[in-house]
Amino acid sequence: MDGELVTSFESNKVRALLAYLVIEAERPHPREVLAGLLWPDWPDRAALTNLRNALANLRQAIGDPQASPPFLLISRESVQFNAESDHELDVAAFTELLTITEAEQSTAEQLERALALCRGSFLEGFSVSDAAPFKEWAALERESLDQQTLEALQRLAAHHEQQGEYAKAQDYARRQLRLDPLQEEAQRQLMRALALRGERAAALAQYQACRRLLAKELGVEPAPQTAALYESIRAGRLLATQPPSISQPEPTPPSAGELPEEAQPLFVARERELAKLNGWLELALGGQGRVAFVIGEPGSGKTLLLQEFSRRAMESYGDLLVAGGSCNAYSGLGDPYLPFLEVLQMLSGDVESRLAGGGISREHGRRLWGALPSAVQALVQVGPELIDLLVPGEGLLARAQALAPSGAPWRTRLEELLRRRAASPQRASLVQADLFEQYTQVLQALAREHPLLLVLDDLQWADAGSISLLFHLGRRLAGSRILVLGAYRPEEVALGREGERHPLEPVVHEFQSAWGDMRVDLAEAQGREFVVALVDSEPNALGVAFREALYQHTGGQALFTVELLRGLEERGDLRRDEAGRWVEGPELDWEELPLRVEAAVAERTLACRMSCDSC
User: Fold this and answer.
1) Could you say which of 1.10.150.120, 3.30.1130.10, 1.10.10.10, 1.20.1530.20 is the CATH number of the domain covering 12-87?
2) pTM of the prediction?
3) CA distances from 100 to 93, 96, 104, 139, 152 (A)
């Protein structure tokens, strides 16, 4: 009141009553409705008594008896906040500013004034116990206001991008992502603003970060528009329209001071699977190269298993090179050789965007960079047609020039090859058989100096060319120190493709005939054992009943179990005791799923429905 902070509320229920009346001020509210809103589990007479006491405290706290006109319009039947009273409401001012429509610049100014009123989400950090109807109302109001905020931020980001004010566009895009990291339009706005400002590496890294987030939270790939923007930036079709604020240096070997160390993801109950993969790697290191597969449903942990195995393998074998590529649910079929393209680019030192986006560790990046001379020599000697076809020659040359002094033999040979290309730009088309052979020979040449672990994710979405190249490569691995690990969803492969057998299926069967069952099936690795291991990954005092309830709600499925446990922690249903152990909170509700788990369940249901529709 009069600019002073009001602190004499007796409880959060009184504060909640004020918030509800102020926001819903357009009509009177029956006393029975208000009592049911805040004391739903109390008998009617007791709830009305609580309301009467809360109103008395509220009037005293806000100085209602002395106000003219009064803040509250109270009758025997209803209560209403007086819209004519002397007050200011930031929510009302925010909403009013967003509805004003004037000239474009004026609209931007109004939006900025509206956003200046935002100091967090609606009732952020505020809660009331045993008042589910109020919680539901507050959640709906919060969602509505957050959506209006996102729309305002999106409009301002677009406005500043059009004006060429890319730093401001970046700021408004980042603010959207703080509210909703899964907002792909904001991801695209940030990628465009970075690229147009000359920060190409950061733009590419932002896509990789977006891709990992969507895979982790929802089990999906970025939308086609996002993937297309990434390809446009990577291919240099979206160029900076102004000099970058910080000059971009020539590529240099990654150094320890440049990159943050990645936090290791939670990983439990997979030792048997890791041991199986390691056995195959040891055979490959002894010259018995082969192809193996990790299979499982969405969210079962295929990608995480491959990441953890790759990390441990690099720790165990100092000369091992690890490179990976993923197929895309939207563009995979129309993006020829996508996973193999990504593998070859990594092996040839194109790690800048993955490093900046946290996709690989510092050590991983340094190891790939150090192998660049071997990769360039292999490409020039046995895979020259792959340069510019699968590996951009300009970027390859820039990396070679950054790493080696002028006159280094391998760099000189690359420069000579590219000069000849520039002098005779007309090139005969490379037939598929020759492409496969050159690709295989490059890997074999590189593996003679560095054993290779190649990881191909989401093969259920691979194009026919990639699957054919995998088959060709697999048949030529005898005597090579190469292990290829592919991951796919068996139920989607079993459905076939366009009414015919999925092209991956006969390839898997062929490799099984050659090497036996080369699969790790994560369906066999889920269940109570996983639930117990996950719960016990941190100190806790959670008993058998909790663990059984967690299993009953998730079936031990990795994604759902991890997300449900994390959601219970974030929502306060699990809390740390004085000893730092996780314990059950007093309001643990198994029937109300956290929002992130609901999203994961909904996305999986949609994916299953889409798969069935394609049958």
Assistant:
1) 1.10.10.10
2) 0.57
3) 11, 7, 11, 26, 12
